[in-house]
């Protein structure tokens, strides 16, 4: 209830999604909340965070929302920041905004060390798989999206559970949507997370690899061909060839107890160095190719009160 009470008048509709909650959170809101903006939506079966968010998106779009803001119900997200998430979208500077808890270096010490390390690793993997090299804190669930962009998302294909926020970034990159980080501080209470790194690490790695391959194919071979389209496969082939040849020669020399000739070493090192340079050149191109032009039609800086934001 505290989360709803903290939402300002700039929000004209609030959707509470009860994702088959065992605590009957939806019923609790209906029984105790007098805010006329609130509409409770129930899931018969638990669909995960992604399923709940997409249900909210569909309801908001059906009611004519312009910007849709997603806030978790655990009280860790400051609802006073909602205008800051909406403003870049209404100003025509972004299609999607997300929170970044790492922006203020003085506040990072409040974050549990396990989460700090996990987010750093996840951010690196997400940069590779999503193509948004200028973003951090990819698992942050405080987000806002323009309704026109949300309508183009393939909801049925987006991962519905813990991988949701990361998969959203991949889908947005395929749409060439502009995503912007919004600095924020996080609040940590005594809540216990249901996420177990040991259980989802392998799944996340596979999904990141899948999204990376899809993104490269879509952006560099299906939609367009460029020098980068040649650099990556050629670089990978040279790296593989040099590493395989060098490894084989090293094993042969060790088995026979002789020193590997300098010429053989160079034959292995040259394709490795050339391959590495080509892969780095591709990464440089990929980093420069981060979407910069918003997909939605854009709005003037003037904000219409009854269409400013929706949660």
What is the H-and-E element order?
A: HEHEHEHEHEHHEHHH
Largest sheet descriptor? 4 strands, mixed
Q: Looking across the biggest beta sheet, what order are the strands in? A: 3-5-4-6
**Percentage of residues in strands:** 5-15%
Task: Report the uncertain regions.
Answer: 298-311
Query: Over the alpha carbons, how many angstroms does the gyration radius reach?
Result: 24 Å
Spatial gap, N to C terminus: 15 Å
What does this structure look like?
This protein is of the alpha/beta class and 311 residues long. The protein folds into two domains: 2-114 and 134-161 and 179-195, Spore Coat Polysaccharide Biosynthesis Protein SpsA, Chain A (Alpha-Beta Complex); 226-288. Helix content is 49%, strand content 9%. The chain is built from ten helices and six strands. A four-stranded mixed β-sheet has the order 3-5-4-6, with helices on both faces. It has a two-stranded parallel ribbon with strand order 1-2. α2 (25-32) links the parallel β1 and β2 (38-42). α7 (164-174) packs parallel to α8 (197-222) and α9 packs antiparallel against α10. The longest helix has 30 residues, at 227-256. The radius of gyration is 24 Å and the shape is elongated.
Topology (elements, then pairings):
Blueprint: H1 2-5, E1 14-18, H2 25-32, E2 38-42, H3 48-62, E3 67-70, H4 82-90, E4 96-100, H5 113-130, E5 143-146, H6 147-150, H7 164-174, E6 179-183, H8 197-222, H9 227-256, H10 262-288
Parallel strand pairs: 1-2, 4-6
Antiparallel strand pairs: 3-5, 4-5
Helix pairs in contact: 5-8, 7-8, 9-10
């Amino acid at each position: 209830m505290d989360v709803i009470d903290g939402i300002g008048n700039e929000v004209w509709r609030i959707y509470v999604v009860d994702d088959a909650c065992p605590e009957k959170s939806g019923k609790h809101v209906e029984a105790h909340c007098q805010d006329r903006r609130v509409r409770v939506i129930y899931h018969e079966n638990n669909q995960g965070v992604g399923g709940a968010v997409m249900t909210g998106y569909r309801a908001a779009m059906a009611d004519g929302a312009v910007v849709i803001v997603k806030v978790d119900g655990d009280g860790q997200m400051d609802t006073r920041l909602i205008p800051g998430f909406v403003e870049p979208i209404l100003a025509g500077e972004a299609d999607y905004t997300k929170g970044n808890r790492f922006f203020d270096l003085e506040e990072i010490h409040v974050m549990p060390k396990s989460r700090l390390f996990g987010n750093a690793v996840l951010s690196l993997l997400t940069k590779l798989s999503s193509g948004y090299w200028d973003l951090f804190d990819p698992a942050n669930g405080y987000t806002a999206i323009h309704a026109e962009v949300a309508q183009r998302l393939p909801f049925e294909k987006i991962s519905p559970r813990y991988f949701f926020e990361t998969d959203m970034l991949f889908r947005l990159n395929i749409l060439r949507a502009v995503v912007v980080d919004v600095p924020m501080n996080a609040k940590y209470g005594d809540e216990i997370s249901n996420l177990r790194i040991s259980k989802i690490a392998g799944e996340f790695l596979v999904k990141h690899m899948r999204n990376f391959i899809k993104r490269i194919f879509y952006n560099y071979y299906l939609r367009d061909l460029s020098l980068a389209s040649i650099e990556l496969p050629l670089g990978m082939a040279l790296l593989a060839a040099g590493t395989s040849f060098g490894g084989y020669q090293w094993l042969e020399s060790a088995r026979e107890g002789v020193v590997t000739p300098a010429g053989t070493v160079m034959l292995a090192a040259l394709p490795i160095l050339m391959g590495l340079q080509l892969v780095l050149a591709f990464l440089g191109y990929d980093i420069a190719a981060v979407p910069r032009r918003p997909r939605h039609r854009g709005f003037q800086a003037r904000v219409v009160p009854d269409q400013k934001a929706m949660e």
